[in-house]
Each structure stands twice: as C-alpha cells, then as structure tokens.
Amino acid sequence: MLYTLFNTPSHMDTSTLLAMLTEKDAVLLLQDGVISAIKHTHFLNQLISSPAKIFALQEDILARGLINLIDDNVILIDYAGFVDLTEEQSKQIVW
C-alpha cells in the first residue's frame, strides 16, 4: 500500500496511520506533508521506527526551503520516482 501524506502531522490521525503500516508499505510525503520529514520530530521518529519505507518529494522540500532539515532516513524522490512508487504499489490511500 502507498500512503500519500499531503498534510502536516497536526492535521491527520497519526496513531491510526502508524498502526496500519507494514513492511510492504511505502509512505510518501507531499506538499505540506514534507514537514513530517524534518529531523528529530516525534512523528518522524515514529515513521522511521515503522516497518514501512519513507519517501518525500524533493521538489516540495526544495519549494519550502527545508532541504537541510530533512532526516537522512527519508528517501528523496522526484516526480518520476513518484510515478514508480504508484506503479509498484497496487493500492493507494491519500491521508
């Protein structure tokens, strides 16, 4: 499952999301969701501890001036990588 997160953690049910993640899942942070990739935040630490892979759209990070604040455990991808993720995952949930 591909979970696409468009919002900051304060605008979503993070505990439910974290409970649903498995090793087969990917989480993609987009738009304001890339704020979740900032180092040393509680939600990011929980995401990293989950079995899912964590991705963020590099263009959205750059647009917000956050590139130097992003945790090394977050995999940065471009739009082509986003397309690849949607092809790899049979289902998608927008969060």
Question: What this model shows, in words?
Answer:
This protein is an alpha/beta fold and 95 residues long. The chain has a single domain (2-94), classed as Hypothetical Protein Ychn, Chain: A. 33% of the residues lie in helices and 20% in strands. It has helices at residues 14-20, 42-49, 58-63, 79-88; strands at 2-5, 26-29, 53-57, 75-77, 92-94. Strands 4-3-2-1-5 form a five-stranded parallel sheet. The mean pLDDT is 95.
Brief description of this entry?
By secondary structure, this protein is of the alpha/beta class. The chain has helices at 14-20, 42-49, 58-63, 79-88; strands at 2-5, 26-29, 53-57, 75-77, 92-94. Strands 4-3-2-1-5 form a five-stranded parallel sheet.
List keywords for this structure.
five-stranded parallel sheet; 95 residues; globular; 33% helix; alpha/beta; 5 strands; Hypothetical Protein Ychn, Chain: A; single chain
Write the layout of secondary structure elements.
Blueprint: E1 2-5, H1 14-20, E2 26-29, H2 42-49, E3 53-57, H3 58-63, E4 75-77, H4 79-88, E5 92-94
Parallel strand pairs: 1-2, 1-5, 2-3, 3-4
Mean pLDDT: 95
Query: If classified by CATH, what would the architecture be?
Result: 3-Layer(aba) Sandwich
How much is the radius of gyration in Å? 12 Å
Main β sheet profile = 5 strands, parallel
